[in-house]
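Hey there, shall we discuss this one?
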Amino acid sequence: MSEIDFSALSEQAKAYAGFEAEDEALLVAEAARLEPHLERITDAFYTELQTIPEAVPFLEGRIDALKTTHAAWLRKIFHGPYDADFAAYMHQVGVVHVQVKLPEKFMTSGIGLINKHLIPLLPEIYPGDALRIGALLKALNAATSYCLLIMLESYRGHELERFMEVTGISRVLYNNLSAAYRSARGQAA
């Protein structure tokens, strides 16, 4: 497997997700107010997942352990720092999902389910503070998108490694073919 520049991955994911420094600062500043509600979000997340027949085999006999891991992951989203180490952690979360053969659609839709249960709590936590709620909505959307982009990189890396394994193509040959393809289309190599 190739080496990953987690600093570059983090910065790229931030740019694509619109995850800005003020979003990071806001999440860290509000972590103490949001954290008491995270267990409720985790419970609602897993209750809903259990109603999806295709998801049940991934959950059976593991709900308590998954809830513990999920709650820790959710807390980490609010504490940062959102740097290379954070990106490596998020990438490893994706790797675990790949290893248990969790379909990519479950992981991507999981972010939507988290937001589905987190966003409605904001008016309860911040009654009458529309500006704070708006800023938090932006920050939460950016942060969860940032995490998702990094976790998806685990799936892409796994697919590429499997492709190279099945075809026998070396990393060097793949990189050369990829650079030639981009060059032929006028894209940066």
Q: What stands out?
A: The CA atoms of residues 75 and 166 lie 39 Å apart. The chain has ten helices and no strands. The chain has a mean pLDDT of 88. The first helix runs from residue 6 to 17.
